[in-house]
Each structure stands twice: as C-alpha cells, then as structure tokens.
C-alpha cells in the first residue's frame, strides 16, 4: 500500500532551527510539487551534503558524501534519478546506471577541480611517468576518469592509494588532497595543480583566530583544504566523516572548515551542538534549487549523457574504487 505523502507543512518542524519561518512559504509549494512528482515518476533524488537544508532534509531520498552517493547510485530503486549536486556527481550516477535516466537540474553546476584537468593532461602525465598508476579524484569529468586506473573520493583516497601496493602513484587533480594523503603514507604521490575554489580560501590564520574567539572549539576540516589548515585542525575527513565525527564526539562547539550548507544540515541532527559558522559558499552547488529540481522532474531536464566509448573505461575506474 502506498502511504500518504509528507507535506511541506509537516516537514518544516525538521528544519525550523536552520530555516526562518518567514522564508518557508517560498519553499513550501515546490516541496509539495516535488514530493508528488517523485511518486508519479518513480524518481529518486540524490543530494550531496552541500545542498541547502530545504533540499537535503525535505526532498532528498539519498544524502551523503561523494562516496556514499556513488555507492547508493549502484543500488537505487527508481526509474529516474535526479542529482542535487554538481555535474561530476551526476556523471558518476549515470556511469553506474547506464540504463536509467539521470537528470541534473542545472548544467552549469560545475567544479573548479573538474575544470582543472583534461583527458589530454592525464595522457601527458602518463607519458612523463611511465608505468605509474593514475588515481583520479571523482571530482573530474568522465573523460578524465576514462584515462585513469582507479578513482577515489576524499573518503577513501588513502585506502585506494594503499590498495595499489606500489611505491609511487599519480594523484589527480587536487594538489591539496594529494599532499594531505602524502602526509599519511610512505607512497610517493605525484600531484597536479588543481584546487577547490571553496576550500583553498581557508588558511591556518583562520583557525587560530577561531580558537582565540571561541576557546575550546573543535575544528574539523575537509582534506581539500591546504595542508597547513589540515595540520591545525582537530580532525580532517570527507563531508560524511565530518558529520560522523560530530555525531560520535558531540563537541560542545564545532566549526566545519568547508561549504556553508554542511553546518546547517548537520546542525539539524544535533541541536545540542553549537556550530560556529565561518564557511565558504560553493557557487556550483548553489546552482541547484528547489525550483530547478521541480522543473527537472516536470520537463525531464537536463538529461546526462556520456559518450559510450568514454563511459565504459570511466565506469571501470569508478567501480574498481567501490570494491576497495
Ligand atoms: P565529499 O566527497 O567529501 O563529500 O566532497 C565532495 C566535494 O565536492 C567537496 O568539495
Ligand atoms: Fe568542486 Fe569545491 Fe564546489 Fe566541491 S566545493 S564541488 S570541490 S568547487
């Protein structure tokens, strides 16, 4: 039996601590429409941890970091998948669901890391370092993944590097993630010069100022931050690992050195934790809205397509990562 759909009015209770009541009417109509459209179209919404709380907590079916979204995409039971995230995440979902329609609500939702490297760049790196395996961050195009031996996310990068059992790897394209992983292993890591435009803006001085202003604050950082930031943080991990840390340690006061919506989403689950919020917005993640999710479901747009010659090799690199 199909149960009654939740309504926007009933969902407000969940997010009332992070969305002011005066803002709610602007969301309610789209939320009710999206919930009805999902049922009508047998659609599932995959939302990254950086999506705003009205998306993350009110219309998403599956939420998580890049690794969790990729894993869940393998088993999602729906005819249609809408990715509330950036383009590389939608491509990963499509790679793992070649027979399903995968939609991204705004094609401009890119990523500075994905833009920092091309397939030709990877081929040139291989020529320069013959025989050295290429570990590629999932924050890349399918064409770049297709040139790689294996993918990784911030959640499994160290395990992926170790799994190769080699003395040297090429790790693309995030220079900071590569350096942060290099600090944890004896494997030599050859990096590229890509940066996340959101995380590169954090500096160690920010942490020192925060500690001064909020004595005892726990500082969590994403491994896309510069190594000097990670060195001064109390913990560094993927978006899911940061969220788990808050759940396990219940710090009285915490700061997440990452994208802004992350704190809102985690705060909903932990009303007893005080979140200090210096954060940086990801303009690409913020291109996804309730309005364009609704249009995506109403108008079947934008359909994610991948050249089949690229898709086969890229899928292999992603699937290989999922078995580490
Ligand atoms: P996570 O895999 O940790 O969620 O990170 C994805 C991302 O784009 C971070 O900027
Ligand atoms: Fe890309 Fe950085 Fe935005 Fe993540 S936060 S999608 S790495 S630009």
What does this structure look like?
The chain has 324 residues and is α/β, with parallel strands linked by helices. The protein folds into three domains: 8-111 and 285-299, Rossmann fold; 112-195, NadA-like (Rossmann fold); 199-276, NadA-like (Rossmann fold). The protein contains 15 helices and twelve strands. The chain has helices at residues 8-15, 25-41, 53-56, 66-75, 87-96, 119-128, 142-146, 157-163, 175-182, 204-213, 227-232, 239-249, 260-269, 290-299, 308-322, and strands at residues 43-48, 62-64, 80-84, 101-103, 134-137, 150-152, 168-172, 188-191, 218-221, 235-236, 253-257, 274-276. The strands form three sheets. A four-stranded parallel sheet has the order 2-1-3-4, sandwiched between helices. A four-stranded parallel sheet has the order 6-5-7-8, with helices on both faces. Strands 10-9-11-12 form a four-stranded parallel sheet. Helix 13 (260-269) links the parallel strand 11 and strand 12. Helix 2 (25-41) packs parallel to helix 14. The longest helix is centred in the first third of the chain and has 17 residues, at 25-41. It is globular. The chain starts with 7 loop residues before the first helix and ends with a helix. The mean pLDDT is 97. Residues 49, 65-67, 139, 153-155, 196, 222, 224, 238-239 line the site of 1,3-dihydroxyacetonephosphate.
Condensed summary:
With 324 residues, the chain is of the alpha/beta class. Helices cover 44% and strands 15% of the residues. It has a 4-stranded parallel beta sheet with strand order 2-1-3-4, with helices on both faces. A 4-stranded parallel beta sheet has the order 6-5-7-8, with helices on both faces.
């Amino acid at each position: 039996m199909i149960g009654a759909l939740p309504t926007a009015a009933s969902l407000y209770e969940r997010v009332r601590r992070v969305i002011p009541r005066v803002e709610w009417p602007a969301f309610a109509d789209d939320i009710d429409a999206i919930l009805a459209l999902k049922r009508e179209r047998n659609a599932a919404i995959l939302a990254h941890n950086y999506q705003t709380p009205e998306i993350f907590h009110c219309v998403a079916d599956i939420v998580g970091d890049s690794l969790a979204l990729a894993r869940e995409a393998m088993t999602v039971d729906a005819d249609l998948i809408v990715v509330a995230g950036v383009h590389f995440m939608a491509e990963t979902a499509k790679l793992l669901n070649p027979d399903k329609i995968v939609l991204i609500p705004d094609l401009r939702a890119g990523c500075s890391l994905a833009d920092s490297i091309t397939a030709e760049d990877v081929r040139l790196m291989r020529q320069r370092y013959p025989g050295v395996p290429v570990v590629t961050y999932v924050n890349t195009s399918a064409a770049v993944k297709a040139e790689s031996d294996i993918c990784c996310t911030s959640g499994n990068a160290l395990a992926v590097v170790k799994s190769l059992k080699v003395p040297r790897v090429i790790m693309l394209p995030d220079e900071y993630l590569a350096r942060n992983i290099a600090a944890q292993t004896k494997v030599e890591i050859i990096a590229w010069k890509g940066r996340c435009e959101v995380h590169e803006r954090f500096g160690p001085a920010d942490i020192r100022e925060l500690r001064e202003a909020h004595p005892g604050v726990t500082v969590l950082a994403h491994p896309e931050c510069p190594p000097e930031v990670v060195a001064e943080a109390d913990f560094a991990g993927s978006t899911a690992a940061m969220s788990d840390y808050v759940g396990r340690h219940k710090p009285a006061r915490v700061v997440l050195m990452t994208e802004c919506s992350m704190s809102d989403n985690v705060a909903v689950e932990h009303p007893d934790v005080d979140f200090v919020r210096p954060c940086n917005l990801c303009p690409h993640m913020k291109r996804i809205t309730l309005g364009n999710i609704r249009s995506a479901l109403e108008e079947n747009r934008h359909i994610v397509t991948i050249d089949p010659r690229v898709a086969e090799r890229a899928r292999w690199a992603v699937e290989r990562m999922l078995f580490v």
